Amino acid sequence: MTTTLITGANKGLGFETARRLIAAGHTVYVGSRDAGRGRLAAERLGARAVLLDVTDDASVAAAAKAVEADGGLDVLVNNAGIEGRTESGGVIGAAELTADRMRTLFETNVFGVVRVTHAFLPLLRRSAAPVVVNVSSGLGSMARVTAAGTPTYAYPGVAYPASKVAVNMLTVQYAKAFPELRINAVEPGFTATDLNGNTGTQSVEEGAEIIVRMALIGPDGPTGGYFDAEGPLPW
Questions:
Q1: Which entry of 11, 29, 153, 160 is annotated as an active-site residue?
Q2: In this model, does residue 199 exceed pLDDT 90?
Q3: pTM score, two decimals?
Q4: Nearest Cα residue to 132 out of 2, 227, 4
Q5: Contacts from 23-26 at CB under 8 Å and sequence distance 24+?
Q6: Of residues 107, 60, 118, the one with CA closest to residue 81
Q7: How far apart are CA 174 and CA 83, in angstroms?
């Protein structure tokens, strides 16, 4: 039996990924920073709920102990993330960017990935086929963001793309450090979720496709890569 933890899984891409992995035979922990929402989501899915706030050391440590006590972990999906908005609802662009706004966004999107990965690494390293999927973004691609005339180039936000560039670097360096793990970053695409006020152009079913695919890879699968549903992406 493969056991999987998904952070931020009580809604959106995390919820759909959980649904699909359960259908594929995984035992899934729905990580949620809100106990009630997490419990409801887990009941709907037939999953296990675990209280997990990726910005809180004690919360992450307690979640790791709970998962360990239940038998361990094979797959970690670092899905929890925020885009960050100004008071008027716009993305955090260069003119609005402050250190505090950057810090808040990095606390979830970057430090959260490090915090959770560090806490669960001992469990993953005991697995026969450990996998980590880091949910990144096409906005984390320097090649895409610098390609004039594309939607990625036109995106005015600064903090969110910077956080996903950091996630991509974490992915590469973790993959090199732990060659026995399969560790990859994925770009779900512009998916309609609460993250973007449901303005995305594709469904959560479409967005979850690459997350699920990379969560299901075996020991002979790729590692240290960056993928969307069509294949490898440029860094």
A1: 160
A2: no
A3: 0.95
A4: 4
A5: 24/212, 24/216, 25/1, 26/1, 26/2, 26/75, 26/215
A6: 107
A7: 24
Do the Cβ atoms of 219 and 182 come closer than 8 Å?
yes
3-state secondary structure of 5: strand
DSSP H or E run through 104: helix 99-109
d(CA 115, CA 96): 27
**Catalytic pick from 65, 153, 164, 176?**
164
Q: What's the whole-number average pLDDT of the chain? A: 94
Nearest to 91 by CA among 99, 100, 80, 83: 83
SS3 61: helix
| CATH number, position 51 | 3.40.50.720
- 45 contact partners, CB below 8 Å, separation of at least 6: 15, 18, 19, 22, 28, 30
Q: End-to-end CA distance of the chain: give it in Å, rounded.
A: 34
Contacts of 87 (CB under 8 A, 6+ apart): none
Q: Which domain holds residue 9?
A: 3-232
Closest by Cα among 223, 198, 194, 148 to 14: 194
Does the active-site annotation cover 160? Answer: yes
Structural domains of the chain, count = 1
* Residue 195 pLDDT > 80: no
